[in-house]
Amino acid sequence: MIQSTPVYLASRSPRRRELLRQIGVAFEVVLLREAGQRRIDVDETPRAGEVPDEYVLRVSREKALAAAGVVRARRLAAHTVLAADTAVICDDAILGKPSGAADAARMLAMLAGRSHRVLTAVAVARGDAIDTRLSASTVWFRALATDEIRRYVATGESTDKAGAYAVQGRAASFITRIDGSYSGIMGLPLAETAELLRSHGIIVP
Hints:
alpha/beta
């Protein structure tokens, strides 16, 4: 059953929409301007000296606040705003969305045959109040041949994915072990999300 009080989801990700529906949360999407548009709403470039945990928390907060500003500017109903940010961490490097096929192949070669961290921060804003939660998981990849990486990138699944792979897609065949939140690796940790929404008066079935 989908609960009737909606939240605003500040995300273009179909995975996050799917996950919110999975736990019965009604939502409306508020789109933020991204790279390539006239003026972006949130600069997702890591800052000098910014550690990965702080980075994803900052970006999720900025997304939530930017979306709350859009809601006010459009004079929409004052519902809770939900935003999230995901990053893959390997050798302390933050791997976001690949810029193209070559960048995706580079990232996957870095991840092959070893473990990496996946961080997803969730932010919930209502009025002047904003709260965040952080989900941290570890994923192990088996060794990958260059041709495997090339074929995977050619499927297009790497596009718009942090670390250039989708845990719920064909890349599942690369993964030998997961320690943490599967939904968090997908892009929206449901336990943390439900906790935040409940703290803001949203009933999560």
